[in-house]
Queue: 2 jobs
Job 1
Amino acid sequence: MEILNYTDAHHDFRKRLREFLEKEVTPHAKHWEKDGIVSRSAWKKMGQAGFLCTEVGPDYGGIGGDFLHAVIITEEISRTYQNGLVTSVHSDIVVPYITSFGSEELKKKYLPRCVSGDIVCAVAMTEPGAGSDLAGITTSAVEEDNKVILNGSKTFITNGILADLVVLAARDPAVKDPYQAVSLYLVESGTPGFEKGRRLKKMGLWSQDTAELFFSNCRIPKSNRLGKKGDGFLMLMEKLQPERLICSIWAVAAAERILEWITAHCRETCISEKPISKSQAVQFGLVEMATEVKLGRTFVDKLIRDHMDGENVVVETSMAKYWTTDMVKRVADRALDFSGSFGILEKNWMAQAWRDVRVMSIFAGTNEIMKSIAAKFLGL
Ligand SMILES: Cc1cc2nc3c(=O)[nH]c(=O)nc-3n(C[C@H](O)[C@H](O)[C@H](O)COP(=O)(O)OP(=O)(O)OC[C@H]3O[C@@H](n4cnc5c(N)ncnc54)[C@H](O)[C@@H]3O)c2cc1C
């Protein structure tokens, strides 16, 4: 029995998406990797084709799909040999803050353009002095009359350079308890006092733009606050579960692609006229990799179903995030060994895949933090 209930409409969506990505995304992968950023036109084409923010309803221009659409997009993007156009950050991680906590006015103003790809979103929590420890953020938000004045800086922000709209976590400096001091605000690119800094050069995910953001007496309307003042931590906690699940789906999909690639490579590469896939040492390695990938797939599919059923899977998503992102690193590492010197050549995808997956255990909450969360919920 299939764990996930994909309908014919989902299968058709996957088919259309795969054809679209083969034509509009895969051919640009190498170019974007060199540029360190993806093209804005790719975002617009994704939006125009109905592949952004698939869970947004027709009232705001979306198709009103379910979480399986997000799963399909994450899986299919892993076939494009690039990790820059990770639309899940925009569609499934940032935009849900607006759909869940935004006022009707904010939804009407922003959601249709998020769906169409005219607006690219980012979420800005991390600061130079506060990564894992979000309670330590110092970016301030002082609410005065109908305005909010923002001061501080953020770093490592995905889509930072391309972002038109940022969900910003900032604290009221007058409130001592950090868990009651943080609120979330929507800040438009181009607002006076909001500057984008450097595009950070990273060891992996080269085509994914990651940037610093600066706020200096940046004034935004108070109506741009999401939800109630001081509820920022609660909102972040609620949305971090799907974020970690998306990250796990991405990790498993990446591991599946790497396994496909290395299996084909081992079948095609001959030593003394015999494919290396006939060597028992290589066979055992491939079987071990396939077993890990299968375990990841089974675990993640079960979590997708539980998440869609509305179950609380905080512990399991934390476990899945750490295990799947460590698993894909093991698979990539072994695949690189089996591909020999061929694999380390920049022109071959394996080198890029290896360095891209290396970063996954660090973002969306480090794997140590995932284990700390699980330990807490297990009452340890
Ligand atoms: C490619 C990429 C994209 C990112 N995108 C975004 C984004 O879009 N928005 C955003 O806000 N942030 C983003 N981040 C930031 C990311 O969320 C942080 O890097 C992450 O939370 C870890 O914070 P840190 O890097 O400051 O590491 P630190 O918190 O300094 O951690 C350093 C080490 O200490 C360990 N550690 C820290 N605290 C504990 C603890 N309590 N118990 C056990 N071990 C601990 C960590 O596990 C880690 O091994 C991104 C990061 C990367 C690499």
Job 2
Amino acid sequence: MVQQAPAGSFLEQPSVSVDAQAPEWGSDVIAEMLRRLGVEYVALNPGASFRGLHDSLVNYNGNVRPGMILCNHEEIAVGVAHGYAKASGRPMGAIVHSNVGLMHATMSIFNAWVDRVPVMVLGATGPMDSTLRRPWIDWVHTSYGQGSIVRDFTKWEHQPASVAAIPEAMLRAWRTMLAEPRGPVYLCFDAGLQEQRLDPARPIELPDPAAYALAAPPLPPPEAVREVARMLAGASFPVLLAGRAARTQRGWDDLVALAEALGAAVLTDFKMPASFPTDHALHQTTPGIRGDEAFYRVLDQADAVLALEWPDVAGTLGGSAESIAGRGSSATGRRRPRLANVTMDDYAVRSWSAEYYAVPAAEVSIAAPVEATVGALLGEVRRYLADDSAGLERADRRLQTHRRRRAELEAEWAAARDAAWGDRPTRIVRYVGELWKALGERQDRVDLVRAPLHWPSGAWEFRHPGAYLGYDGGAGVGSGPGMAIGAALALRGAGRIPVAILGDGDVLMAASALWTAAHHRIPLLIVVANNRSYMNDEIHQERVARTRGRPVENRWVGQRMDEPPVDFAGLARDLGVEGIGPVGDPNDLAEAYGRALRAVEEGRPVLVDVLIARS
Ligand SMILES: Cc1ncc(C[n+]2csc(CCOP(=O)(O)OP(=O)(O)O)c2C)c(N)n1
Ligand SMILES: [Mg+2]
């Protein structure tokens, strides 16, 4: 019997009552293992290649643990799982149809790979035993070695060859995706095996996952930690590059304590989740997708750098605020501070994509999780400085210098904000600043799950882990809506306010995700930063035109999304999400955001379309 879950219940989806039973069909084993692994949700778009599994999830598991999240594109389904894992630290599943669904999902799987986020992708194939194939479609949807299309950007892909082999394969997938560095895995289930009736005389052995401990992550070698502590404590201008550096409050607090003990400047990267309080005096820049002038001014002074899961250390040290404009970043050796690099990335180097970046000239490299390393470093640095009054004094002087510089920066940011506040069309400082103001006393409960590539300084502060979840890993447009909804799903019922500020191009590419938020009653606020253009690429065309002495006025051709403009609020409404806007007048933002935040607090997804300046 299908029952509608009462409004406000945790799962917010139909659950089916079923009696506890032993697996009868091959796919019941998969469903049973998902339950045993504690998978809370699977995001999916249906397909006959996993109709066996679909039946087991509904009629064997009762559509709980995992519950289905219905998506209208596989790219969105995997994006939902990606966002969920980022917000909760727990993986969920995504189920994709044989070959075609997996092909749709590839970009999102790549994103999760680059972002080091665990996602359990389950798929299917028509029967390997050709005598079991239905005419036509099972042949079209059978492929040999299907996982090879995602092999280069998953930690493991596999197709178990019997029902009895499924439990072990699922255990392997689980522990592999959770071992550091984390990442997505793909398991492909033969439709013939899913639909195989099990022989009651030969029961399948079902393991208790608790008996298979996950591997404990490596610890940083004490000698290496001591060396780095010496390097930092002895430096005259140490700098911390805080990348994916603090998942937990403990890690966050340790990093703050380390920076304070050293009087070190801290730089963050907007591609990475929040790791350091942006309103701290030692935070010496705006979190940016690339370094701005303030960022490089700090780096230019560094004589020792500690990089913590930082994306492209060599490129950063060789770069400048302008380096994105041209080709080739590095004047190699432009900056040569002493460098300590803490990253697990050496264990994720593969050949197909180059997200390993250039080899940085690190004096010490530590392949251990950042939080454990920072915790150990903090103890060592404190020990060094306890016996070194001159060192302590230097750290304190740096702290004062950074405080003064931070006050200068804040004055610059405020001046820039004031200058642009009244501009029409609305500038980013205004539409972000107004939202921060509208949040008011709710600021400590907001989690910014996605944001535009450019971020205004001093307009919004991150003060706890999860305050901002970072970018998508692979820089794939269309990832925003799914990831935002997945993060909001993880945060549902936790008293948080998930907010995603997404580009109009990003939303348009995956707009059907809005329906999923409406259908599953997932509260979140989506702000469309609507410049009616693929603006990032207009800017590129302008640069190329300038370099070539060609007319920059043509930069918009093949980039603009007007004539007709997209009515995002109308689109949202059509998909069951409350739509507000377009808001063209910046003075109307406060009211629009106020209304939207009330709706989110009442448990509804809402979209605000904000018309913004093209720049
Ligand atoms: C799948 C994919 N297609 C194309 C691109 C190239 N690209 C990078 S940013 C961008 C523009 C995105 O437009 P929008 O979301 O409106 O943001 P805006 O640049 O206007 O702020 C494009 C097309 C990409 N990164 N990924
Ligand atoms: Mg745009």
